[in-house]
Structure formats: C-alpha cells, structure tokens
Amino acid sequence: MAALWHMQRMFVFDHLGHWITRRLQSESSGYQPYTPSDPEVLRKVLRPGDVLLIEGNQKISVGIKYLTQSTWSHAALFVGNAAPAVDAATREEFGLIEVLVADGCIAVPLSKYETFNTRICRPMGLSDDERAQVVDYMIGKIGTRYDLKNIIDLARFLFPTPPVPVRWRRRMIALGSGEPTRAICSSLIAQAFQSVRYPILPSVEDEAGHRPFVPSPYSRDEILHIRHHSLFTPRDFDLSPFFEVIKPTLESGFDHRRLKWSHHGPQVGGAAE
Length: 273
What we know:
By secondary structure, the chain is α+β, with helices and mostly antiparallel strands. The chain is built from eleven helices and six strands. The protein has helices spanning about 1-25, 40-45, 60-70, 130-140, 150-155, 165-170, 180-185, 185-195, 215-230, 235-240, 250; strands at about 50-55, 75-80, 95-100, 105-110, 120-125, 245. It is globular, with a radius of gyration of 20 Å.
C-alpha cells in the first residue's frame, strides 16, 4: 500500500512539474533585442568550445536574470559540425548544445537565437585536443533528461522577482538543489570544462594561502557556495577571468570610417543609420 501511494505521489509530482515547466518556458511579453545576432557572422567567429550566452525571452529567464543580477539567462556550447544531427527542414547543422528543463541536453541550430541578444565567451589557452575533449563531453551528454518531480525547484520561478536583498538572491538558486536546478543552470557546460581541468571561477586561495583574485569576503563566500552546489549560471562565464568576451562586429573588421551617418548628425549615444 505504501509503495502504491509513493508511486501515485510521484506520478502527480511529475505531471505537476511538467505543467510548471510549460508555464515557465512560455514567452514573456515585451522582450525586444537591442543588438540581435547575425547567425552567419556568429558562425564565422565562433570556435568549438566557445560558450554562447543568451538573453532569453521566457518567463523563467526573468527569474534567472533577477537572481543572478545579469543580462544573461541561458548558455549553450558551440560544437561546430561535431554534433551528430541537422535540422530536418533547413538542413542546417546543429552547432550548439544546450540544456533545457523540459528537453534535457539537446543539439540545436545556431539560427535558433538569431533574434536574441548574445555574447561569446571564449576559454583562453586551451589546446585543440582540450577543446575537442570539451566538445566530446557535451556531445556524450545529448539525450540526458532531468527528473522534474522536485517541484520546489521549479515552483519558485513562478514568482521570479522575490523581494529579497541583493546578497541573498544568488543563494535562492540553490533552493531545492535538485535536478531541475541543474538543468536551469549551466552546470553541465561547467562540468565539460572541468573535465579538462579548466577553471570557470578563480581560485579562492593559492598554495601559499593567499586570495589572489577574490576582492572581498562576500565574493569568496559566493564562489565557495557556487562550487559547493555546482550551480554555475551564464553570468559566471561572463565574469570569469579565464574567458574572453568576443564581439563579432569587431572580429570581422570594424571600421568606424565606413559608417554612414544621418545628415542631421549623430543622435544621442552616437546612433548611425
């Protein structure tokens, strides 16, 4: 009898988890990309092993951006033509691997995020072999699904902007700390880099016991907390001292002299036609 009750309870929680997920992954109103990405330009600049950060437009994105105090709510790893799939309609290669709450670890085409604000974060100093290992790690995780029965992890995002002090917001991501949280965070991408012993966050202490990169006790506590729960978020790649921010416009040879300005002169902020 107890076993039957347990199975029924898990069945209910699983269905409730999927219902919450559908709510959270619905698009929020009012999203307008500031500088949407050009897939062709991105494709020319991206290298396998690069992390692509995305400013999402789903309801869950609001909560992630609020709790992490960041523009970025999602991350994907660029794998080039290594992913074993193409889009059936467009025949476009699935150049990105990402983790979604409902779908788990999947490969998607780069054009999926052509209407979103994005940022490229590139790990510096990796050898070609190490980049290949990072890519292979993520490809090996394709198909991984996450158990959605821990509804506490999901339900908290139904209230995306809780009125809590700034220093506590990041800690709220660890509430529940179950599989849905790991799917929401960028933990799998972090694990891919950790598989080749590449850091995302700075060391809290060096061998001499010093704290070379950590400017405050608050930052030190946050880094330890993130590592303890392995809950890396897109913001961590952006702020990491080991990842370089790559801007496709500059990489492709930007020349301000070729801009065509309005006859009325530059607008506030230097906007051009």
